[in-house]
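Translate sequence into structure tokens.
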Amino acid sequence: MRGGEKVLLELARLFPSADVLALLWNRGTVAGEIEKRVRQVSFLQKLPRAATAYRYYLPLYPAAARSLDLRGYDYVLSSSHAAALGARAAPGAVHVSYIHTPMRYLWEPEDYFQFGRGRRWKRAALGLAAPYLRRWDRSSAARVDHLVANSENVRQRIRRVWGRDAMVIPPPVDTDFFTPGGDAAGDYYLAVSSLEPYKRIDLAVDAFIGGSRRLLVAGKGTLEPELRARARPPVEFLGEVSDEKLRELYRGCRALIFPAREDFGLVPVEAQACGRPVICFGEGGALETVIDGVTGIHFRPQTAEALAATVRRAESIPWDSGAIRRHSLQFSRQQFRARMKTFWRGEISESWNFEERSE
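Result follows.
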């Protein structure tokens, strides 16, 4: 249940009679509220090792999106960071697409292939498919009736690559679950992320190696073996953790370390909901979620040295956990639902009756 899945869950709750259609479904990996409503899955599901090797089927994504049968639906709401917006609504139906980002590995491949192993052949393979995929991506975006962006950062990217405007509605954070604890901050810093090259957890590891400050890293991914081999105390890897353990880690950290350039980034908001400051790279969605000097600090450039210097500076600031918490509430699930309802009634159907099921 990463950011995209959490958005899907809230959308499913807003539209409790809606069916869920997916390009790929790994059973047992998302909330039961979503899984019990899956009605169609594309042919990607039947391909070899689709659950783990789906990235290698990227050239097939357009055909997979088109294969979903949307006849009989008057409204289509897609949640897209890659190809879901390419699903074709029936003639006369309204298609609304919530955009986490236009495909970053298609439009900004340097973020994905600059770091990590195998980047040369991956960049070469993508280069062969990119012209076709970009044409398809633009034409798919042009067919969607309404675009909703998860941040101003993504809205600007939509304008740049698709030449369209979008409404901004930030994704939901469970601020009822992620709440401050009663104890003072502990003696460690925290990084929470999938361990993939573009997340830049390598910067956090390098910034803390050999120092006196502890860094705990929660998450897993393809770079985990490489990062574990690279790290040494006081850097510790926790692997994947439960939501309850994650909340405990947020509450006890001195600050969250967030070195990536993200589209939005739910993790910094979750940490702030627990009253903890965020030390983040000063580009992308973090500029919209972290107030420099108030709820955290932006560091530049994107280097381990700049991050380490910012950590030292953060220790001299008397953080106000209450103010940090209050700032996070504008990204709550309740705010997300209210904004989506206002948008839907204003742009799609003013008489729409939202009847949310209990959670």
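Note: The chain has two domains: 3-172+332-348, 188-330.
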